[in-house]
Amino acid sequence: MPPLPDTAPGMLVTGRNTMHPDDDHGIDRVPRPIASRSRDITDGHFIARHHHRRAQLLFASKGTMVVTTDQGIWVVPTQRAVWIPAFVDHAVMSRGQLSLRSLYFTPALTPGMPESCSVVTVSTLLRELILACVALPPDYDEAGSEGRLVSVLLDQIQTLSATPLHLPMPSDARLIPVTDALSTHPADPRSLEDWAMEVGASTRTLTRLFTAETGMTFREWRQQVRLLEALTRLGEGHPVTNVAMDLGYDSQSAFISMFKRALGKTPGKYFAE
Question: Quick one: which of 88, 115, 87, 105 has its CA closest to 156?
Fold first, then answer.
């Protein structure tokens, strides 16, 4: 895949203003195995490409964020989090007013955690633990109640459950025009046959490339980009009917059926959690 851009292309990842990440050395100098940071970001801000020397759990206590790496795009709705391994280059964009709560872990604390980014569900208990740990002083007492709080958090981290909110991006030059266009305009109704004519490749070739480069068929990839865009719009408060129509669905019920098949809940129940 091409290198991660310093500014984000496409509807899912376009920000109006770029923010450069804070100097990460302060996190590395924290004299404890867990460090934390809180920040509030306005709608449309883009935090440029960077990485951390510690693994990061990035929690959206309010708003929706879009995380981009060289491996693809992750949409993180409110009250969910994304696990970002150490040294993984990533950029972050806010969709709506965004409140970020970050925890950073030394590698020894998180054995067996994923080696690639993953959007994870956050239980009520884990949410409260994240908020409590973010409020700890940098030199929290490891031997006292603060250390015991951190221990409970680490136990909960090991039970995180991933959700399918990842959009893999291809590197083949014949697919990039297709995926860029659909990322920008998810409702684009053109078929794979139409795209084959557009990029000068056979339908059979594009079919093979989609599976090889993304692990999805063309139809599956297009549905995923629509699902992720729907999550960002619903998280911003747009009505379900408007989102369904804007993303090319024939009816609200067809959209809700797709959403429930993908995430196991209707939009109303998903965002009520």
Answer: 105
Paired sense of beta strands 17-19 and 45-50, if any: parallel
Please check whether residue 61 is in contact with residue 116, taking contact to mean a CB–CB distance below 8 angstroms.
no
Tell me the CATH class for 10-157: mainly beta
Q: Which fold has domain 170-272?
A: Arc Repressor Mutant, subunit A (1.10.10)
User: 10 Å Cβ neighbour count for 104?
Assistant: 23
pTM of the model: 0.85
Tell me the residue type at 206.
Answer: L
For 85-137, write each residue's pLDDT tens digit.
999 999 999 988 999 999 999 988 888 888 889 999 999 999 999 999 999 99
Q: For the purposes of burial, counting CB atoms within 10 Å of the CB of 125, is it exposed (0-12), middle (13-18) or buried (19 or more)?
A: exposed
β-sheet bridge partners, residue 36: 103
Please report the pLDDT score of residue 24 as a whole number.
56
Q: Where are the domains of the chain?
A: 10-157, 170-272
Strand partners, 12: none
